[in-house]
Design goal:
The structure is a homodimer. The first copy, chain A, has three domains: about 25-75, 434 Repressor (Amino-terminal Domain), CATH 1.10.260.40; about 85-180 and about 320-345, Rossmann fold (3-Layer(aba) Sandwich), CATH 3.40.50; about 185-320, 3-Layer(aba) Sandwich (Rossmann fold). Chain A has a six-stranded parallel β-sheet with strand order 2-1-3-4-5-11, with helices on both faces. In chain A, helix 1 (about 30-35) packs across helix 3 (about 55-70), helix 6 (about 130-135) runs parallel beside helix 7 (about 155-160) and helix 8 (about 185-200) runs parallel beside helix 10. Chain A is an alpha/beta fold. Chain A is elongated. Chain A is built from 14 helices and twelve strands. The longest helix of chain A has 18 residues, at about 220-235. The structure holds a DNA duplex.
Chain lengths: ~350, ~350
DNA sequence: TTGTATGCGTTATCAT
DNA sequence: ATGATAACGCATACAA
């Protein structure tokens, strides 16, 4: 009765396409064993590589598996081994975050997880921290990866309480006991300052994320800013910082204020990737050529996007791929669980949007 | 031995934070039953609402569940019920697709699935169609949702072969037997033509997706185009169509060619959402005001983005939320599996980027 | 190197 | 309205 329609599946060749094909009920490990003339445990071990199987039997078993198109039942495996081979990925819902980067990280996590023979379950903040409790508590997932970690993230307490394997993409205030990976935003800020200083700029502006980002999760935004400002001080650069919301008008306002307050500004460092396009457009229409009149350096965009704009952007990209892969490695890899903080070094890609300052 | 570290978990108060808390081994249904003084089957039925339970016992059981913090083991459930309560979401990897929309749909699918007490498993095209075979064959997922469906999508054959519950976001050439949901792009094209005709435009240009999109998956792009062109003909509009790759320089080239070939063009319909920003910038810097000199109508952006640009865009948004929810409904809802094609009606949001043609 | 037997935690089919 | 019990399909400790 699992497939009610099978009852009147009389294979009437006239009727329209009948979606209810009698689903070839899955073959089981026991059937494979019989087919290969071995015991169930042997088949199991062939599949999981748990013990030395003589080449001849291994071959017979493998043949049977292929022939019958056998696929082990995930639920049964999870029950018997108490391992679901699923890692939960907690994604944010925030509107003020750069979505393409999130997606890239999610995809990187998924492909990396597959390499470790795991699948990825999506959980959203919609469920709140309880979502984590649920997937871990039911044994649905045996590892959790947190994206977009805030400085004081309420999900972290749940992770600690449950003692579930986990890794964080982002750096919380207290990473104690939890492996983390993030771009070293402080170093990125410093690197940006260095690049501009090297080119001879003396007065620069940092156009940051929206104010809400600073209020809530001062993490990466704050680190970038201070890394940048510290290095500016060391190199004798005059720097100002302006938060920038993700709207065209917001960007326009910020840009106007920057050149009003500091007319001598010759370079912009932009962290709000969503606003890079608008800013370039605004600069152009206000008669400032990039990079002849003003240099632009982006922090955090995905690299393909940076290379698609015009002029091609000098930028410190967000290593979405690495972030995802490392997060998986941290939670499923060799020394999984080793609490440690991995700060990925920023890489500066110099293209066309930065140059010496005018008259520099 | 499941948690080797427990051996040397001597609760040394000196040592640093020890991540290996003896994980409170999950309580089982049997324990709940004992705690409540009922049989396991009763507990099971309370949880699944499978039979009439007297209010008093239901309460006792519920109390026991809460008290023990019981969470049913997902694997055991899946094994016993042969239902995983997981729906697999097959996401594309393509670079030429609008990522924010994909992410929005994925999130909509996830929240909708939760409403039906299901979780969402991510599978990428990285695995190819075999990924679907795997998750369905192992019983990991008992339903599959395909995103970014191509006209002749190889994944569809797998779905039919397996007879797995499925729904498609997008419209393939032959949807026979598979429930689909998509924006009615033909109607969207027609609606765009109507709006411009109503405003008095006589010569318009359709700036489409990259050529690769047309070659591969002529689906939505082709439907939009023909819906637009047909209606233009009916309304006496002169229309041209130009594909447009997702690069700034590509957009610049296309725009230049359009006004070269048809200097009298007074309106642009843009389907490549990623290029809307650049196009607006290009128009501005080429001295054309929007909408005074040229109207711009976007097809397919997410609505928040359309309202953030400047001028705010008149647009026919992609109903990401609806698409995701409907797809879930189609595969998990009341009359799940009913093969049917749902074409969501386009909604035109009129803002600031369209107006009467100059001198119109 | 391989086979046997038991248990994993739930659901579902019987009884009562 | 509730209880006993047999699957569910696999992994694994143990025996051979």
């Amino acid at each position: 009765m699992q497939h009610p329609a099978a009852e009147h599946d009389l294979r009437d060749p006239h009727g329209p396409y009948d979606p209810y094909q009698p689903p070839p009920k899955a073959t089981t490990l026991a059937e494979v064993a019989r087919h290969a003339g071995v015991s169930p445990s042997t088949v199991s071990c062939v599949i999981n590589g748990k013990r030395n199987i003589s080449p001849p039997t291994r071959l017979r078993v493998q043949a049977a598996i292929d022939e019958l198109g056998y696929l082990p039942h995930a639920g049964a495996r999870a029950l018997a081994s108490s391992k679901s081979r699923i890692v939960a990925l907690a994604v944010p819902l925030r509107a003020d975050l750069y979505v393409p980067a999130m997606m890239q990280i999610a995809i990187a996590v998924t492909t990396a997880a597959r390499r470790h023979d795991h699948d990825v379950l999506l959980i959203t903040n919609h469920e709140g921290p309880e979502g984590i409790r649920r997937v871990a508590g039911t044994g649905l997932a045996d590892a959790v990866i947190l994206m977009d970690v805030e400085l004081h993230d309420e999900r972290i307490a749940v992770l600690r309480e449950l003692g579930v394997a986990a890794s964080l993409i982002g750096l919380p205030a207290d990473p104690e006991g939890l492996p983390c990976v993030d771009l070293d935003f402080a170093a990125a800020g410093a690197l940006a300052a260095d690049h501009l200083a090297d080119l001879g700029h003396r007065q620069v502006a940092f156009i940051g994320m929206g104010e809400g980002v600073y209020r809530r999760r001062t993490g990466f935004a704050e680190r970038t800013r201070s890394g940048f400002e510290d290095r500016c001080r060391e190199r004798g650069l005059r720097a100002i910082h302006r938060p920038c919301d993700s709207t065209y008008d917001g960007a326009a306002g910020v840009l106007a204020r920057v050149f009003e307050d500091r007319p001598g500004t010759t370079a912009l460092v932009v962290q709000n990737e969503a606003m890079i396009g608008p800013l370039l457009g605004l600069l152009r229409s206000s008669g400032r050529e990039v990079p002849q009149d003003v240099s632009v350096l982006a922090i955090g965009p995905d690299e393909p996007a940076a290379r698609q704009s015009s002029p091609r952007l000098t930028s410190i990209g967000l290593p979405a791929h690495d972030l995802g892969h490392r997060a998986v490695e941290l939670v499923l890899g060799e020394n999984a669980g080793e609490p440690g903080v991995i700060m990925l070094p920023p890489r500066l890609a110099v293209w066309e949007s930065t140059a010496e300052p005018p008259g520099g």
